[in-house]
Amino acid sequence: MTPNYCAILATYNHHKVLEKTVRTLRQENLPVIIVDDGSNVRTQQVIQEIREKYKGVFPFRLEENSGKGAALEHGLRQAQKQGYTHAFQIDADGQHDLSTLEKFIEISKSNPSALLSGHPVYDQSIPLERLIGRRFTHVWVWIETLSFRLTDTMCGFRIYPVEQTLAVCDRVNIGRRMDFDTEIMVRLFWAGVPTIMSPVRVTYPEENHSNFDILKDNWRLTKMHTKLVFNVLFHLPEILANRPDYKSLDLSGETVHWSTVRERGSFMGILFLAKIYKLLGRRFCLILGSPLVLYFYITGTLQRKASRDFLSRVLKKQIGFEETFRHFMNFFSMVLDKFAAWNGDINLSRLDSAGVKQFKKMMSQKQGGIIFVSHLGNMELCRAVSRPDHKSRVHVLLHTKNARHFNRLLKTLNPLSTINIIEVTEIGADTMLFLKERIEQGDWAVIAADRRPVHTIKSPAPRVTTVPFLGKLAPFAQGPYILASLLECPVYVSFAIKNNTQYRLYIEKFSDQIILDRRNKEASLQHYAQKFSEILEEKAKKYPYQWFNFFDFWGQDK
Protein backbone atom coordinates (compact mmCIF):
# COMPACT_ATOMS: atom_id res chain seq x y z
CA MET A 1 0.00 0.00 0.00
CA THR A 2 1.30 3.45 -0.92
CA PRO A 3 1.66 5.63 2.20
CA ASN A 4 -0.96 8.37 2.40
CA TYR A 5 -0.30 11.16 4.90
CA CYS A 6 -2.35 13.66 6.84
CA ALA A 7 -1.66 15.85 9.88
CA ILE A 8 -3.54 15.84 13.19
CA LEU A 9 -3.72 18.93 15.41
CA ALA A 10 -5.31 18.37 18.82
CA THR A 11 -6.00 21.78 20.32
CA TYR A 12 -7.35 23.18 23.55
CA ASN A 13 -7.38 26.99 23.50
CA HIS A 14 -4.31 27.37 21.24
CA HIS A 15 -5.86 30.11 19.09
CA LYS A 16 -2.70 32.30 19.00
CA VAL A 17 -0.45 30.02 16.91
CA LEU A 18 -2.95 27.63 15.37
CA GLU A 19 -3.21 29.34 11.98
CA LYS A 20 0.55 29.62 11.61
CA THR A 21 0.91 25.88 12.13
CA VAL A 22 -1.91 25.03 9.71
CA ARG A 23 -0.45 27.33 7.04
CA THR A 24 2.92 25.54 7.19
CA LEU A 25 1.27 22.11 7.02
CA ARG A 26 -0.82 23.08 3.99
CA GLN A 27 2.30 24.44 2.26
CA GLU A 28 3.59 20.86 2.49
CA ASN A 29 0.29 19.70 0.92
CA LEU A 30 -0.70 17.83 4.05
CA PRO A 31 -4.44 17.54 4.74
CA VAL A 32 -5.05 18.75 8.30
CA ILE A 33 -7.46 17.18 10.79
CA ILE A 34 -8.11 19.61 13.66
CA VAL A 35 -9.61 18.12 16.81
CA ASP A 36 -11.02 20.86 19.05
CA ASP A 37 -10.93 19.37 22.54
CA GLY A 38 -13.68 21.50 24.08
CA SER A 39 -11.93 24.84 23.48
CA ASN A 40 -13.28 28.29 24.31
CA VAL A 41 -15.31 30.47 21.94
CA ARG A 42 -12.27 32.39 20.66
CA THR A 43 -10.51 29.18 19.59
CA GLN A 44 -13.69 27.93 17.91
CA GLN A 45 -13.85 31.17 15.93
CA VAL A 46 -10.20 30.82 14.83
CA ILE A 47 -10.80 27.22 13.71
CA GLN A 48 -13.82 28.33 11.65
CA GLU A 49 -11.74 31.11 10.05
CA ILE A 50 -8.99 28.60 9.20
CA ARG A 51 -11.52 26.23 7.64
CA GLU A 52 -12.86 28.99 5.40
CA LYS A 53 -9.39 30.24 4.45
CA TYR A 54 -7.59 26.95 3.70
CA LYS A 55 -8.64 23.98 1.64
CA GLY A 56 -7.86 20.52 2.96
CA VAL A 57 -8.65 21.37 6.61
CA PHE A 58 -11.14 19.09 8.42
CA PRO A 59 -12.20 20.27 11.89
CA PHE A 60 -13.91 18.06 14.48
CA ARG A 61 -15.07 19.09 17.93
CA LEU A 62 -15.35 17.29 21.26
CA GLU A 63 -17.92 19.23 23.27
CA GLU A 64 -16.23 18.49 26.60
CA ASN A 65 -12.50 18.67 27.23
CA SER A 66 -11.42 15.02 27.24
CA GLY A 67 -7.64 15.36 27.18
CA LYS A 68 -4.87 15.32 24.61
CA GLY A 69 -4.86 11.54 24.30
CA ALA A 70 -8.60 11.32 23.68
CA ALA A 71 -8.39 14.07 21.05
CA LEU A 72 -5.48 12.40 19.25
CA GLU A 73 -7.22 9.02 19.20
CA HIS A 74 -10.32 10.69 17.80
CA GLY A 75 -8.16 12.28 15.10
CA LEU A 76 -6.51 8.95 14.26
CA ARG A 77 -9.91 7.30 13.81
CA GLN A 78 -11.03 10.09 11.53
CA ALA A 79 -7.80 9.71 9.55
CA GLN A 80 -8.46 5.99 9.12
CA LYS A 81 -12.04 6.67 7.94
CA GLN A 82 -10.68 9.08 5.32
CA GLY A 83 -8.20 6.48 4.03
CA TYR A 84 -4.95 7.87 5.43
CA THR A 85 -2.29 5.31 6.32
CA HIS A 86 -0.05 7.69 8.30
CA ALA A 87 -0.84 10.61 10.56
CA PHE A 88 1.57 13.35 11.44
CA GLN A 89 0.98 14.56 15.01
CA ILE A 90 2.19 18.01 15.96
CA ASP A 91 1.39 19.88 19.16
CA ALA A 92 -0.67 22.98 18.55
CA ASP A 93 1.34 25.26 20.84
CA GLY A 94 4.03 26.19 18.31
CA GLN A 95 7.03 24.62 20.07
CA HIS A 96 8.33 22.47 17.23
CA ASP A 97 10.42 23.48 14.24
CA LEU A 98 8.33 22.57 11.20
CA SER A 99 11.26 23.01 8.81
CA THR A 100 12.14 19.35 9.56
CA LEU A 101 8.73 18.11 8.42
CA GLU A 102 9.86 17.30 4.86
CA LYS A 103 12.75 15.17 6.16
CA PHE A 104 10.40 13.40 8.56
CA ILE A 105 8.06 12.43 5.77
CA GLU A 106 10.98 11.22 3.61
CA ILE A 107 12.21 8.96 6.41
CA SER A 108 8.69 7.69 7.05
CA LYS A 109 8.10 6.89 3.38
CA SER A 110 11.29 4.79 3.39
CA ASN A 111 10.10 3.03 6.57
CA PRO A 112 6.28 2.89 6.45
CA SER A 113 6.04 0.20 9.13
CA ALA A 114 7.79 2.36 11.75
CA LEU A 115 6.69 5.02 14.18
CA LEU A 116 8.76 8.15 13.54
CA SER A 117 9.20 10.42 16.55
CA GLY A 118 11.10 13.61 17.29
CA HIS A 119 14.11 13.64 19.55
CA PRO A 120 13.90 17.20 20.93
CA VAL A 121 16.86 19.54 20.77
CA TYR A 122 16.12 22.30 23.29
CA ASP A 123 17.36 25.84 23.61
CA GLN A 124 17.57 27.79 26.89
CA SER A 125 13.85 28.55 26.93
CA ILE A 126 12.75 25.17 28.33
CA PRO A 127 11.45 25.48 31.93
CA LEU A 128 13.65 23.61 34.42
CA GLU A 129 10.75 21.70 35.98
CA ARG A 130 9.73 20.36 32.57
CA LEU A 131 13.28 19.24 31.82
CA ILE A 132 13.63 17.39 35.14
CA GLY A 133 10.27 15.67 34.71
CA ARG A 134 11.17 14.49 31.22
CA ARG A 135 14.40 12.94 32.47
CA PHE A 136 12.57 10.84 35.03
CA THR A 137 10.20 9.64 32.31
CA HIS A 138 13.16 8.73 30.07
CA VAL A 139 14.57 6.49 32.80
CA TRP A 140 11.28 4.69 33.36
CA VAL A 141 10.75 4.18 29.63
CA TRP A 142 14.20 2.62 29.29
CA ILE A 143 13.23 0.19 32.05
CA GLU A 144 9.80 -0.52 30.55
CA THR A 145 11.18 -1.21 27.07
CA LEU A 146 14.49 -2.75 28.21
CA SER A 147 16.03 -0.60 25.53
CA PHE A 148 17.54 2.84 24.93
CA ARG A 149 15.94 3.30 21.52
CA LEU A 150 13.12 5.54 22.78
CA THR A 151 15.19 8.58 23.69
CA ASP A 152 12.16 10.83 24.27
CA THR A 153 8.51 9.78 24.52
CA MET A 154 6.98 13.15 25.44
CA CYS A 155 7.68 14.93 22.18
CA GLY A 156 4.42 15.64 20.33
CA PHE A 157 6.08 15.62 16.92
CA ARG A 158 5.70 12.22 15.30
CA ILE A 159 4.28 10.20 12.43
CA TYR A 160 2.03 7.27 13.39
CA PRO A 161 1.30 4.24 11.23
CA VAL A 162 -2.46 4.55 11.70
CA GLU A 163 -3.50 0.90 11.50
CA GLN A 164 -0.92 -0.39 14.00
CA THR A 165 -1.57 2.49 16.39
CA LEU A 166 -5.34 2.03 16.47
CA ALA A 167 -4.87 -1.73 16.87
CA VAL A 168 -3.06 -1.02 20.15
CA CYS A 169 -5.74 1.50 21.18
CA ASP A 170 -8.43 -1.13 20.52
CA ARG A 171 -6.59 -3.75 22.57
CA VAL A 172 -5.78 -1.75 25.73
CA ASN A 173 -6.93 1.44 27.42
CA ILE A 174 -4.32 4.11 26.65
CA GLY A 175 -4.04 7.22 28.82
CA ARG A 176 -6.54 9.89 27.73
CA ARG A 177 -4.54 12.98 28.65
CA MET A 178 -0.83 13.90 28.73
CA ASP A 179 0.08 10.29 29.47
CA PHE A 180 -0.99 9.24 25.95
CA ASP A 181 2.22 10.24 24.13
CA THR A 182 4.47 8.11 26.32
CA GLU A 183 2.18 5.12 26.79
CA ILE A 184 1.35 4.68 23.10
CA MET A 185 5.06 4.71 22.19
CA VAL A 186 5.91 2.10 24.80
CA ARG A 187 3.01 -0.14 23.82
CA LEU A 188 3.77 0.16 20.11
CA PHE A 189 7.34 -0.90 20.92
CA TRP A 190 5.97 -3.88 22.84
CA ALA A 191 3.78 -4.67 19.81
CA GLY A 192 6.90 -4.97 17.65
CA VAL A 193 6.57 -1.60 15.89
CA PRO A 194 10.07 -0.09 15.49
CA THR A 195 10.53 3.54 16.49
CA ILE A 196 12.81 5.85 14.53
CA MET A 197 14.02 8.88 16.45
CA SER A 198 14.94 11.99 14.47
CA PRO A 199 16.16 15.31 15.94
CA VAL A 200 13.81 18.31 15.99
CA ARG A 201 14.43 21.76 17.44
CA VAL A 202 12.05 22.71 20.26
CA THR A 203 11.53 26.15 21.80
CA TYR A 204 9.24 27.53 24.47
CA PRO A 205 8.21 30.94 23.04
CA GLU A 206 6.96 33.67 25.38
CA GLU A 207 3.43 33.46 23.98
CA ASN A 208 3.49 29.69 24.41
CA HIS A 209 0.39 28.23 26.02
CA SER A 210 0.88 24.75 27.45
CA ASN A 211 -1.91 22.70 28.98
CA PHE A 212 0.49 20.51 30.97
CA ASP A 213 -0.57 20.56 34.63
CA ILE A 214 2.57 20.03 36.72
CA LEU A 215 0.78 18.28 39.61
CA LYS A 216 -2.07 16.43 37.94
CA ASP A 217 -0.21 15.32 34.82
CA ASN A 218 2.91 14.24 36.70
CA TRP A 219 0.64 12.16 38.93
CA ARG A 220 -0.94 10.63 35.82
CA LEU A 221 2.53 9.86 34.45
CA THR A 222 3.51 8.25 37.76
CA LYS A 223 0.47 5.96 37.71
CA MET A 224 1.10 5.15 34.05
CA HIS A 225 4.73 4.16 34.66
CA THR A 226 3.70 2.02 37.62
CA LYS A 227 1.19 0.22 35.40
CA LEU A 228 3.73 -0.27 32.61
CA VAL A 229 6.44 -1.59 34.95
CA PHE A 230 4.05 -4.21 36.34
CA ASN A 231 3.11 -5.11 32.77
CA VAL A 232 6.80 -5.74 32.04
CA LEU A 233 7.11 -7.99 35.10
CA PHE A 234 4.01 -10.04 34.25
CA HIS A 235 4.51 -10.22 30.46
CA LEU A 236 8.31 -10.24 30.14
CA PRO A 237 8.60 -13.38 27.94
CA GLU A 238 5.99 -12.03 25.49
CA ILE A 239 7.63 -8.59 25.38
CA LEU A 240 11.07 -10.06 24.77
CA ALA A 241 9.75 -12.35 22.06
CA ASN A 242 8.16 -9.44 20.20
CA ARG A 243 11.10 -7.04 19.95
CA PRO A 244 10.96 -4.63 16.98
CA ASP A 245 13.06 -5.56 13.95
CA TYR A 246 15.41 -2.72 13.00
CA LYS A 247 17.52 -4.65 10.52
CA SER A 248 15.10 -4.18 7.63
CA LEU A 249 14.77 -0.40 8.08
CA ASP A 250 16.42 2.23 5.91
CA LEU A 251 18.28 4.30 8.51
CA SER A 252 20.80 6.12 6.35
CA GLY A 253 21.35 9.84 6.69
CA GLU A 254 22.20 12.34 9.38
CA THR A 255 18.55 13.04 10.22
CA VAL A 256 18.28 9.77 12.16
CA HIS A 257 19.22 9.80 15.83
CA TRP A 258 22.06 7.50 16.93
CA SER A 259 19.78 5.41 19.16
CA THR A 260 17.88 4.21 16.09
CA VAL A 261 20.94 3.21 14.10
CA ARG A 262 22.22 0.78 16.68
CA GLU A 263 21.66 -0.17 20.28
CA ARG A 264 24.74 1.16 22.04
CA GLY A 265 24.31 -1.46 24.72
CA SER A 266 27.56 -1.40 26.59
CA PHE A 267 28.36 2.31 26.67
CA MET A 268 24.80 3.58 26.93
CA GLY A 269 23.86 0.95 29.49
CA ILE A 270 26.76 1.93 31.72
CA LEU A 271 26.10 5.63 31.19
CA PHE A 272 22.45 5.14 32.10
CA LEU A 273 23.36 3.35 35.34
CA ALA A 274 25.97 5.99 36.13
CA LYS A 275 23.33 8.69 35.83
CA ILE A 276 20.93 6.74 38.07
CA TYR A 277 23.69 6.18 40.62
CA LYS A 278 24.58 9.86 40.68
CA LEU A 279 20.94 10.89 40.99
CA LEU A 280 19.48 8.28 43.36
CA GLY A 281 22.40 6.40 44.93
CA ARG A 282 23.64 2.84 45.20
CA ARG A 283 20.66 1.34 47.04
CA PHE A 284 18.18 2.40 44.35
CA CYS A 285 20.59 1.17 41.68
CA LEU A 286 20.66 -2.27 43.28
CA ILE A 287 16.84 -2.39 43.35
CA LEU A 288 16.63 -1.20 39.77
CA GLY A 289 19.55 -3.31 38.66
CA SER A 290 18.24 -6.76 39.55
CA PRO A 291 15.65 -6.96 36.74
CA LEU A 292 18.11 -5.33 34.33
CA VAL A 293 20.78 -7.87 35.19
CA LEU A 294 18.18 -10.61 34.76
CA TYR A 295 17.36 -9.24 31.31
CA PHE A 296 21.01 -9.20 30.24
CA TYR A 297 21.42 -12.65 31.79
CA ILE A 298 18.53 -14.00 29.69
CA THR A 299 19.59 -12.29 26.46
CA GLY A 300 23.37 -12.59 26.91
CA THR A 301 23.76 -16.12 25.61
CA LEU A 302 27.52 -15.91 25.00
CA GLN A 303 28.22 -14.23 28.33
CA ARG A 304 26.04 -16.73 30.20
CA LYS A 305 27.81 -19.64 28.53
CA ALA A 306 31.23 -18.13 29.29
CA SER A 307 30.28 -17.66 32.94
CA ARG A 308 29.07 -21.25 33.25
CA ASP A 309 32.19 -22.56 31.51
CA PHE A 310 34.55 -20.61 33.76
CA LEU A 311 32.71 -21.42 37.01
CA SER A 312 32.50 -25.12 36.18
CA ARG A 313 36.28 -25.19 35.70
CA VAL A 314 37.19 -23.20 38.80
CA LEU A 315 34.56 -24.68 41.14
CA LYS A 316 34.77 -28.17 39.60
CA LYS A 317 31.03 -28.86 39.78
CA GLN A 318 27.86 -28.64 37.73
CA ILE A 319 26.83 -24.99 37.40
CA GLY A 320 23.23 -23.78 37.33
CA PHE A 321 21.23 -20.56 37.45
CA GLU A 322 22.13 -19.68 41.04
CA GLU A 323 25.88 -19.60 40.40
CA THR A 324 25.81 -17.84 37.04
CA PHE A 325 23.28 -15.20 38.13
CA ARG A 326 25.37 -14.54 41.23
CA HIS A 327 28.33 -14.06 38.89
CA PHE A 328 26.36 -11.48 36.84
CA MET A 329 25.21 -9.67 40.00
CA ASN A 330 28.78 -9.49 41.29
CA PHE A 331 29.76 -7.83 38.02
CA PHE A 332 26.95 -5.32 38.49
CA SER A 333 28.12 -4.60 42.05
CA MET A 334 31.66 -4.04 40.75
CA VAL A 335 30.36 -1.52 38.19
CA LEU A 336 28.56 0.39 40.96
CA ASP A 337 31.80 0.51 42.95
CA LYS A 338 33.50 2.07 39.93
CA PHE A 339 30.80 4.72 39.77
CA ALA A 340 31.23 5.39 43.48
CA ALA A 341 35.00 5.70 43.17
CA TRP A 342 35.00 8.09 40.21
CA ASN A 343 32.16 10.04 41.82
CA GLY A 344 34.25 10.55 44.99
CA ASP A 345 32.06 8.38 47.25
CA ILE A 346 34.84 5.85 47.92
CA ASN A 347 38.23 6.84 49.26
CA LEU A 348 41.43 5.14 50.40
CA SER A 349 39.77 3.98 53.62
CA ARG A 350 38.01 1.27 51.59
CA LEU A 351 41.38 -0.25 50.66
CA ASP A 352 43.27 -2.40 53.13
CA SER A 353 46.14 -0.52 54.78
CA ALA A 354 48.80 -3.10 53.85
CA GLY A 355 47.97 -2.82 50.14
CA VAL A 356 47.92 0.98 50.25
CA LYS A 357 51.28 1.03 52.05
CA GLN A 358 52.79 -1.29 49.44
CA PHE A 359 51.38 0.82 46.59
CA LYS A 360 52.83 4.02 48.07
CA LYS A 361 56.19 2.32 48.46
CA MET A 362 56.14 1.26 44.82
CA MET A 363 55.19 4.76 43.68
CA SER A 364 58.04 6.28 45.70
CA GLN A 365 60.70 4.47 43.66
CA LYS A 366 62.87 6.58 41.38
CA GLN A 367 62.26 4.29 38.43
CA GLY A 368 58.77 3.30 37.42
CA GLY A 369 57.72 0.17 35.59
CA ILE A 370 54.86 -1.84 34.18
CA ILE A 371 51.84 -3.18 36.07
CA PHE A 372 50.12 -6.25 34.65
CA VAL A 373 46.41 -6.25 35.51
CA SER A 374 43.54 -8.51 34.52
CA HIS A 375 39.77 -8.73 34.49
CA LEU A 376 39.82 -10.31 37.93
CA GLY A 377 38.74 -7.87 40.63
CA ASN A 378 38.37 -4.11 40.29
CA MET A 379 41.67 -2.34 39.61
CA GLU A 380 39.72 0.65 38.34
CA LEU A 381 38.79 1.47 41.91
CA CYS A 382 42.44 1.75 42.93
CA ARG A 383 43.20 4.25 40.19
CA ALA A 384 40.08 6.24 41.04
CA VAL A 385 40.91 6.69 44.74
CA SER A 386 44.65 7.25 44.30
CA ARG A 387 46.23 10.53 45.29
CA PRO A 388 46.24 13.13 42.47
CA ASP A 389 50.01 12.98 42.12
CA HIS A 390 49.86 9.20 41.77
CA LYS A 391 47.07 9.35 39.17
CA SER A 392 49.13 11.68 37.00
CA ARG A 393 51.97 9.14 36.98
CA VAL A 394 49.86 6.17 35.86
CA HIS A 395 49.37 5.62 32.11
CA VAL A 396 46.72 3.10 31.07
CA LEU A 397 47.06 1.39 27.68
CA LEU A 398 43.68 0.70 26.07
CA HIS A 399 42.52 -0.21 22.60
CA THR A 400 41.35 2.91 20.78
CA LYS A 401 37.63 2.07 20.82
CA ASN A 402 37.62 1.17 24.52
CA ALA A 403 39.71 4.22 25.41
CA ARG A 404 37.27 6.61 23.76
CA HIS A 405 34.28 5.03 25.48
CA PHE A 406 36.09 5.08 28.82
CA ASN A 407 37.10 8.72 28.48
CA ARG A 408 33.55 9.77 27.59
CA LEU A 409 32.11 7.87 30.54
CA LEU A 410 34.74 9.18 32.95
CA LYS A 411 34.17 12.80 31.95
CA THR A 412 30.44 12.26 32.41
CA LEU A 413 30.91 10.86 35.91
CA ASN A 414 33.53 13.37 37.00
CA PRO A 415 34.53 16.26 34.71
CA LEU A 416 37.49 17.01 37.00
CA SER A 417 38.92 13.51 36.82
CA THR A 418 42.54 13.14 35.80
CA ILE A 419 43.86 9.91 34.36
CA ASN A 420 46.24 9.28 31.50
CA ILE A 421 44.78 7.07 28.80
CA ILE A 422 47.01 5.99 25.93
CA GLU A 423 44.88 5.04 22.93
CA VAL A 424 46.61 2.34 20.95
CA THR A 425 45.88 0.05 18.07
CA GLU A 426 49.54 -0.73 17.64
CA ILE A 427 52.44 0.40 19.80
CA GLY A 428 54.75 2.31 17.52
CA ALA A 429 58.13 3.89 18.07
CA ASP A 430 56.67 7.18 19.32
CA THR A 431 54.64 5.42 22.01
CA MET A 432 57.66 3.33 23.03
CA LEU A 433 59.87 6.41 23.38
CA PHE A 434 57.20 8.20 25.42
CA LEU A 435 56.73 5.27 27.79
CA LYS A 436 60.45 4.71 28.22
CA GLU A 437 60.98 8.37 29.11
CA ARG A 438 58.09 8.43 31.57
CA ILE A 439 59.13 5.19 33.29
CA GLU A 440 62.67 6.48 33.72
CA GLN A 441 61.11 9.45 35.55
CA GLY A 442 59.11 7.22 37.89
CA ASP A 443 55.82 6.74 36.01
CA TRP A 444 53.95 3.47 35.55
CA ALA A 445 52.28 1.85 32.54
CA VAL A 446 49.24 -0.37 33.13
CA ILE A 447 48.28 -3.07 30.65
CA ALA A 448 45.81 -5.97 30.81
CA ALA A 449 47.62 -9.26 30.32
CA ASP A 450 44.63 -11.59 30.19
CA ARG A 451 43.18 -10.69 26.77
CA ARG A 452 44.33 -10.58 23.20
CA PRO A 453 47.22 -8.19 22.75
CA VAL A 454 47.57 -4.56 21.96
CA HIS A 455 49.71 -5.13 18.81
CA THR A 456 53.39 -4.48 19.22
CA ILE A 457 54.14 -5.02 15.54
CA LYS A 458 51.97 -4.98 12.44
CA SER A 459 50.70 -8.45 11.77
CA PRO A 460 47.55 -9.93 10.22
CA ALA A 461 46.74 -11.95 13.35
CA PRO A 462 47.13 -11.40 17.11
CA ARG A 463 50.27 -12.92 18.62
CA VAL A 464 49.50 -15.25 21.51
CA THR A 465 51.20 -17.92 23.57
CA THR A 466 49.12 -20.90 24.61
CA VAL A 467 49.60 -22.15 28.17
CA PRO A 468 47.55 -24.21 30.66
CA PHE A 469 44.92 -22.28 32.63
CA LEU A 470 42.41 -24.03 34.88
CA GLY A 471 43.01 -27.37 33.26
CA LYS A 472 42.92 -26.38 29.59
CA LEU A 473 45.21 -24.56 27.17
CA ALA A 474 44.33 -20.88 26.83
CA PRO A 475 45.78 -18.12 24.59
CA PHE A 476 47.60 -15.32 26.44
CA ALA A 477 48.82 -12.14 24.78
CA GLN A 478 52.53 -11.89 23.98
CA GLY A 479 52.31 -8.10 23.79
CA PRO A 480 52.74 -7.27 27.49
CA TYR A 481 55.95 -9.32 27.76
CA ILE A 482 57.42 -7.96 24.52
CA LEU A 483 56.60 -4.40 25.64
CA ALA A 484 58.19 -4.95 29.06
CA SER A 485 61.34 -6.43 27.56
CA LEU A 486 61.76 -3.44 25.26
CA LEU A 487 61.24 -0.97 28.10
CA GLU A 488 63.78 -2.80 30.30
CA CYS A 489 61.94 -2.04 33.54
CA PRO A 490 60.52 -3.85 36.59
CA VAL A 491 57.17 -5.57 36.19
CA TYR A 492 54.50 -6.01 38.88
CA VAL A 493 51.19 -7.86 38.96
CA SER A 494 48.27 -6.32 40.81
CA PHE A 495 44.70 -7.25 41.78
CA ALA A 496 42.06 -5.35 43.76
CA ILE A 497 39.74 -7.92 45.33
CA LYS A 498 36.56 -7.08 47.23
CA ASN A 499 36.19 -8.59 50.69
CA ASN A 500 32.80 -7.66 52.17
CA THR A 501 32.79 -3.84 52.03
CA GLN A 502 36.56 -3.39 51.74
CA TYR A 503 39.01 -3.99 48.92
CA ARG A 504 42.26 -5.86 49.34
CA LEU A 505 45.04 -4.67 47.07
CA TYR A 506 47.50 -7.35 46.00
CA ILE A 507 50.80 -6.16 44.55
CA GLU A 508 53.63 -8.54 43.82
CA LYS A 509 56.73 -8.23 41.73
CA PHE A 510 56.52 -10.31 38.59
CA SER A 511 60.10 -9.76 37.40
CA ASP A 512 62.94 -7.28 37.91
CA GLN A 513 63.20 -7.25 34.14
CA ILE A 514 61.71 -9.39 31.40
CA ILE A 515 64.43 -10.75 29.14
CA LEU A 516 63.53 -12.61 25.98
CA ASP A 517 66.18 -15.02 24.73
CA ARG A 518 66.91 -14.09 21.12
CA ARG A 519 67.82 -17.66 20.26
CA ASN A 520 64.63 -19.10 21.74
CA LYS A 521 62.15 -16.26 22.05
CA GLU A 522 59.09 -18.51 21.99
CA ALA A 523 60.34 -20.47 25.00
CA SER A 524 60.90 -17.23 26.93
CA LEU A 525 57.41 -16.02 26.11
CA GLN A 526 56.07 -19.41 27.16
CA HIS A 527 57.84 -19.06 30.52
CA TYR A 528 56.41 -15.63 31.33
CA ALA A 529 52.93 -16.43 30.07
CA GLN A 530 52.90 -19.58 32.18
CA LYS A 531 54.03 -17.62 35.23
CA PHE A 532 51.24 -15.04 34.80
CA SER A 533 48.71 -17.81 34.16
CA GLU A 534 49.64 -19.50 37.44
CA ILE A 535 49.27 -16.25 39.40
CA LEU A 536 45.92 -15.54 37.74
CA GLU A 537 44.71 -19.09 38.33
CA GLU A 538 45.58 -18.94 42.02
CA LYS A 539 43.54 -15.76 42.50
CA ALA A 540 40.67 -17.00 40.30
CA LYS A 541 40.30 -20.13 42.43
CA LYS A 542 40.22 -18.00 45.57
CA TYR A 543 37.80 -15.37 44.21
CA PRO A 544 35.84 -17.07 41.39
CA TYR A 545 32.90 -14.68 41.40
CA GLN A 546 35.20 -11.71 40.82
CA TRP A 547 36.31 -12.96 37.40
CA PHE A 548 34.80 -10.44 34.97
CA ASN A 549 36.07 -11.66 31.61
CA PHE A 550 32.73 -12.74 30.15
CA PHE A 551 34.12 -14.32 27.00
CA ASP A 552 35.19 -17.79 26.01
CA PHE A 553 38.64 -17.40 27.53
CA TRP A 554 39.97 -20.67 26.19
CA GLY A 555 38.72 -20.20 22.65
CA GLN A 556 38.49 -16.40 22.47
CA ASP A 557 39.32 -14.87 19.12
CA LYS A 558 39.32 -11.13 19.71
Structure report:
The protein has 558 residues and is of the alpha/beta class. Among the domains are: 5-125 and 149-211, Spore Coat Polysaccharide Biosynthesis Protein SpsA, Chain A, CATH 3.90.550.10; 347-546, no CATH class. 48% of the residues lie in helices and 17% in strands. It is built from 21 helices and 15 strands. It has helices at 18-27, 41-53, 68-81, 101-110, 128-145, 162-171, 180-190, 214-234, 236-241, 258-261, 265-280, 282-299, 301-315, 321-342, 353-363, 379-385, 388-391, 400-413, 429-440, 479-487, 521-542, and strands at residues 5-11, 32-37, 57-62, 86-90, 115-122, 157-161, 195-202, 369-373, 394-399, 420-424, 444-448, 464-469, 472-477, 491-499, 502-511. The strands form three sheets. The chain has a seven-stranded mixed β-sheet, sandwiched between helices. Strands 10-9-11-8-14-15 form a six-stranded mixed β-sheet. Residues 262-266 and 454-460 have low confidence and may be disordered.
